[in-house]
Amino acid sequence: MTTTDEKLQKVLARAGLGSRREMERAISDGRVKVNGKTASLGDRVDPAARIAFDGRAIKTASPAAKRPRVLLYNKPEGEICSRKDPEGRRSVFDRLPRLKGERWVCVGRLDYNTTGLLLFTTDGELANKLMHPSTVIEREYLCRVMGVATEDNMRALVKGVALEDGVARFTDIVDGGGEGINHWYYVVIMEGRNREVRRLWESQGLQVNRLKRVRYGNVFIPSKVKVGQWTELAPKEVKDVYAMAGIAPPDEVESSAVPEKRKKAR
Fold first, then answer.
1. How do residues 16-61 score in pLDDT, each as one tens digit?
2. 195 and 75 in one domain?
């Protein structure tokens, strides 16, 4: 064993494949191979190791090679959160800066027609911790609702509504103004279920025709970051994101310089 060896589950988690605990289960289930041999829990690997997960080769990066990075992206309508799409639709990854030896991991997803705040990081473990249900993080959305929401509707949405995948609720609803059938509301949820905001309003017979995420935990979209643009978080902001996830930031965050702040849409 050398000083550069690391626990296999830590390397897999950093690659964005899941949490360390999930990777431990994957190793125990025989889903991971190192240099062509099925790995065992407790194995350590060096940077030159050839690692395969479910038969697919995995690119890994040394933890000391580069500091972890976090981007904030203001997603427009008409982009998917997958890297590739059989229909040829544009991906949120298309506008992000290119990386060598690393990859961007998307923290959660937004629907094709939903706009607003998306976080990306090169630290897969951070991404998985931010998305895990045990890490309770507020997501705030601005939504335009077609129809008239009554006081009974509002009470039901805050108290909780039975959806097909379990009870869901808004922890807060704030009137955002508007007249007639088009009314704006700010709503807060604590989960990231598929189409959760839209489905909650639909449970009350109301339709959302505009939806934008404006906050993820303590991270807001800066006014200077227009739709289709990204900004890289400064080291202090990255440390705050690690604190939000409940994990300690790597030492590299402490000593890194302030990065380039903004990139225009291409």
1. 777 778 889 999 999 999 999 999 998 999 888 899 999 988 877 6
2. no
Q: Which domain holds residue 123?
A: 70-134+219-255
How far from the centroid of its chain's Cα atoms is residue 193's Cα?
Answer: 12
The residues pairing with 34 across neighbouring beta strands, listed in sequence order, are: 37, 51
Q: What is the identity of the amino acid at 205?
A: G
- Number of independent structural domains in the chain: 3
The CATH number of the domain where 162 resides is what? 3.30.2350.10
225 shares a domain with 211: no
Task: Tell me which residues are annotated as active site.
Answer: 111
Q: How many CB atoms lie within 10 A of CB 143?
A: 23
Residues 93 and 44 in one domain: no
* Cβ-contact 11, 48 below 8 angstroms: no
**What does pTM read for this prediction?**
0.77
Given the structure tokens 């027609």, which residue do they identify?
Answer: 113
Residue 31 tokens, joined: 């889903």
Tens digits of residue pLDDT in 227-252? 999 999 999 999 999 999 999 887 65
